[in-house]
Write a structure and sequence with these properties.
By secondary structure, the chain is mainly beta. Helices cover 7% and strands 52% of the residues. The strands form ten sheets. The protein has a 26-stranded antiparallel beta sheet that branches. A five-stranded mixed beta sheet has the order 9-14-15-12-13. The chain is globular, with a radius of gyration of 29 Å. It is found in: Cell outer membrane. Pfam families: CarbopepD_reg_2, Plug, TonB_dep_Rec_b-barrel.
Length: 905
């Protein structure tokens, strides 16, 4: 037996020796052709395999291979990809300096960290439906708008909500709203853990710090168990820049908008240290009335590369801001007061005041560690945290007054409040419904979120890669209301019944009383460091803890022109709610609820005739419900009907790539079951819903459960560059997004108390809130060196109201044209610096259009549900472009402009 073991050992050593001796080395150095500097982090692969490596800090690489001849592919985001042939003699070949030139059609000034975490499609062999927006385009096109403006020329992407104010835009992808589209920041999830929503006001500085945005429609390439029903949007920010320099910029725009930005990079020194810093300030009056805003953005990044194996980067960024808000209104209100009308503001003693202000400060920090263990093994980890503080103001109490012009009459409110001598006297004490007085409250939403994502990558052989990792998160949110302006009162008094676990409205339950006399500043910097005392909170006070743990993995095979992959992830998410205001002490902690979710994806691609490729992907998600759907009516009562949402996605595509023309065609079908659709409207007139009276101006929330949706469609995008100085690009998407089956509908008041529950037939109804058919064409012409003009035209059709209805209301189609002029002037002794000018004009032809509706009133409906004798909207001539003027929505923005001057050094 011992002889046999020795023989096996000798044989193994012999085979290992053969393997070692059969390994050959391909060496070289990659150089940035523009700055004549080493290019660190460039990707080097052997064509037709998954065998690869990256360049070190000095731009050098060394790659082992068993083949004696072939081709290596050198790629780096923002540079033209280069393919070089090699022939090996004596087990080694040095290819010398390899020059990469910048590619204006790709991404610019990119330093990518956490490469194993950030699922960039460029790194994937198997293609997906993807659009990538480079830094220079983001900076040029966004101007004064939210960063969502950079995505408008993308198939199946619709941007709405800009009329609400700075930061209030929304996007949908393939007809799925933001809570069902995954948003990532450098690979880390940033959708709200309670409801999955995105608030772009928290990311107002993204256009300053983004290196690129990649929109992966449908299944995407992310390995995480995230909410990518419609797609995945990955924001990849700047890291610590590799070269010294910076920029200063100034921008102005319509409605007294002004923005200034200053950034500086120390560059990486010989010891591997570097730092990048960016600061900006903005302010403006807003396009619509009463939508003033102001904010800052900061970005600080520290990089350290001690050796070729390790790369560390720490960054922190935040965008403290406050902006006044505009809500949807009836078309008749716009026609009466003008399309810029906003009824959420007024004056107090002649000074401007809004009752609806969003204020928030959400710093995000992460520490990235890239560890190249050896030539075939790497580990990427990001440890992240965010701390959100702030909220939104609104009316509280029923003593609101309005002027004849439709604005808030703060002077009358103040006079009414001070008529009560002590401010907390008989009016409040004798009236638990608070019908006589009015204050401005702030609904606070504070949170602390910590997480870790780590990915281990192993090249099993030249054709096979394995990835697996962890996704861990913990979240604690605190929600309460506080007074921001007493408007003449000395305090506020209120009562409520303290609940137990079974009785929510029982006069035998104990009575809780509360009197507050302190108001709180709504400056975002102040609110970040100051919180209301427990005895100064009103209306509600609760918190929740959400914990998430997931594992994921991916196996990818690639050989010659064929590639295939399989992904899988499983996760557990737990929830618990704690209510300190509406419950007796012994009943404040809810039952803890845990749900398991998972996803699986797979696909394959084949390249034929070099320029042509096809692919097909399929995936299935079992997604846990959001926290806000786990507990009923914002109480500690667990929703017994809640179950995992089920998503099935199928897609296929074709790509053609040549030197002058590229095109992609995608087809998809996504089914989504057991989901929740929620929306809000502003009550247009006094009415009774169920048994509860509601008043004009009250905000109502409508929720549909058990909804199934089926989304299918085609997408096309192309780019054509017949001349070096002329580029033509375009996109088209044609979708058919419908509801399937019935839904249970619950109508709630602004405090989320249920008013009415009904069952609704939705079968065949069109999904709204996004145009199902879009077309776009853009062109850019450089008629002088670094002097160019560009324009984009888009058409939107098959746009339906944002309601779940069998017979949904279709809005009129519309067109928008945007245009811009750019000029870059080289300055300095060696022309190393530059001054850039950019002018944008959006909606050049001042198209008047409805961008969204949140109601479904037909022209044949009665104006009054209680008095049909008044007739219909149509019989009374109350119709606008075929739409009943009682519908609530937003008009799109008219013509706007912005100008930016930027000095790069």
């Amino acid at each position: 037996m011992k002889i046999f073991k020795n023989a096996l050992l000798i044989g193994f050593m012999f085979l290992s020796t053969l393997t070692v001796f059969s390994q050959s080395k391909v060496k070289g150095t990659v150089i940035d052709g523009e700055f004549n500097q080493p290019l660190s982090g460039a990707s080097i692969t052997i064509k037709g395999t998954t065998k690869g490596t990256t360049t070190d800090f000095d731009g050098k690489f060394e790659l082992s291979t068993e083949v004696k001849s072939g081709q290596i592919v050198i790629s780096y985001l923002g540079f033209e990809t280069k393919t070089i042939s090699f022939n090996i003699a004596n087990n080694s070949v040095d290819l010398g300096n390899i020059i990469l030139l910048t590619d204006a059609s790709q991404l610019q000034e990119v330093v990518v960290i956490g490469k194993g975490i950030i699922d960039v499609a460029k790194e994937r062999k198997t293609p997906i439906a993807v659009s990538t927006i480079k830094a220079v385009e983001i900076q040029e096109k966004v101007g004064t708008a939210d960063v969502t403006q950079a995505m408008v020329n993308t198939p199946s992407v619709y941007v709405a909500g800009q009329a609400g104010g700075y930061g209030d835009s929304r996007i949908t992808v393939r007809g799925f709203q933001q809570d069902n589209t995954a948003f990532l920041l450098n690979g880390q999830p940033i959708n709200g853990m309670e409801d999955g929503l995105m608030y772009w006001s928290n990311w107002s500085g993204m256009s300053d710090i983004a290196n690129f945005i990649q929109i992966q429609r449908g299944l995407g390439s992310s390995k995480l168990a995230i909410s990518s029903v419609g797609g995945t949007v990955n924001f990849v920010t700047k890291a610590t820049d590799k070269k010294e320099g910076g920029f200063a910029s100034m921008g102005v725009a319509n409605n007294d908008y002004f923005k200034s930005t200053l950034a500086y990079n120390t560059g990486m020194n010989a010891k591997g240290f570097g730092m990048s810093v960016l600061m900006s300030h903005w302010q403006g009056d807003g396009y619509n009335q009463g939508t003033r805003g102001e904010g800052q953005n900061y970005f600080i990044s520290f990089g350290y590369k001690p050796n070729d194996k390790h790369n560390f980067n720490f960054l922190i960024t935040g965008a403290p801001q406050s902006h006044d808000q505009n809500f949807t209104k009836t078309i008749s209100s716009y026609l009466q007061y003008g399309r810029k009308y906003n009824n959420n503001w007024g004056t107090l003693n002649g000074n401007y005041l809004s009752e609806r202000t969003n204020f928030y400060h959400k710093p995000v920090a992460n520490l990235n560690w890239d560890f190249n263990i050896n030539e075939t093994t790497s580990l990427s980890t990001v440890l992240y945290a965010s701390w959100g503080r702030g909220g939104g103001t609104g009316n509280y109490g029923r003593g609101k007054r309005t002027t004849s012009e439709g604005y808030v009459d703060f002077d009358a409110i103040y006079a009414n409040n001070i008529a009560d001598a002590d401010g907390i006297g008989s009016a409040e004490s004798s009236d638990p419904n608070r019908n006589n007085n009015y204050v401005i409250r702030a609904s606070m939403n504070n949170h602390a979120w910590y997480g870790l994502v780590t990915n281990f990558k192993k090249e099993l052989n030249e054709n096979l890669n394995l990835n697996f990792g962890l996704d861990l998160r913990t979240y604690n949110g605190d929600h309460y209301r506080q007074v921001s302006n007493f408007l003449g009162l000395d305090g506020w008094y209120e009562t409520r019944r303290l609940r137990d676990n079974t009785h929510f409205s029982n006069n035998s339950l104990p009575l809780g009383t509360n009197t507050v006399n302190q108001s709180y500043n709504i400056n975002p910097w102040y609110s970040f460091f100051n919180s209301a005392e427990d005895n100064q909170k009103i209306d509600y006070d609760y918190s929740e803890t959400i914990s998430y743990g997931g594992v994921f993995g991916q196996l990818e095979y690639s050989k010659n022109n064929f590639s295939t992959f399989f992904q899988g992830a499983i996760s557990n998410q737990s929830h618990q709610r704690f209510d300190y205001y509406d419950y007796q002490d012994e009943f404040q902690d809810s039952e803890k609820v845990s749900n398991v979710g998972y996803n699986v994806k797979g696909g394959a691609a084949y390249i034929f005739a070099e320029k042509h490729s096809v692919y097909a992907n399929a995936g299935y998600y079992s997604r846990q419900p959001y926290h806000d759907n786990v507990y009923l009516n914002f109480t500690n009562q667990v929703n017994p009907l809640t179950e995992n949402e089920k998503v099935l996605g199928l897609e296929a595509g074709y790509s053609f790539k040549s030197k002058k023309f590229n095109a992609n065609l995608n087809a998809y079908r996504t089914t989504w079951e057991d989901r929740v659709v929620a929306r809000s409207i502003v009550q247009s007139a006094n009415a009774t819903i169920g048994t509860t009276p509601v008043l004009a101006g009250d905000v109502l929330f409508i929720e549909d459960q058990g909804v199934k949706q089926v989304h299918s469609g085609l997408e096309l995008d192309f780019a054509y560059k017949p001349l070096d100085n002329f580029e033509l690009r375009g996109f088209a998407s044609a979708g058919n997004w419908e509801y399937d089956g019935n839904a249970i509908r619950t109508t709630r008041d602004e405090n989320l108390n249920p008013l009415l529950v009904t069952e609704t037939d939705l079968d065949g109804g069109k999904v709204g809130d996004a145009a199902q058919t879009t077309w776009g064409l853009g062109a850019k012409y450089e008629f002088l060196p670094r002097f160019s003009i560009d324009a984009d035209w888009r058409n939107y059709d098959k746009l339906y109201a944002n309601v779940a209805a069998k017979d949904n209301l279709e809005l009129p189609s519309y067109d928008v044209v945007d245009a811009g002029i750019s000029y870059k002037m080289l300055v300095g002794k060696e022309k190393q610096n530059s001054v850039s000018f950019r002018f944008n004009m959006n909606n050049v032809f001042n198209e008047v259009y409805l961008s969204e509706l949140r109601s479904n009133i037909k022209v044949t409906d009665d104006i009054s549900s209680t008095n049909p004798s008044l007739g219909t909207y149509q019989s009374n001539g109350r119709v606008y472009k075929g739409i009943a003027d009682g519908n609530q929505g937003f008009f799109g923005l008219g013509r706007t402009w912005n100008f930016t001057l930027r000095y790069n050094f």
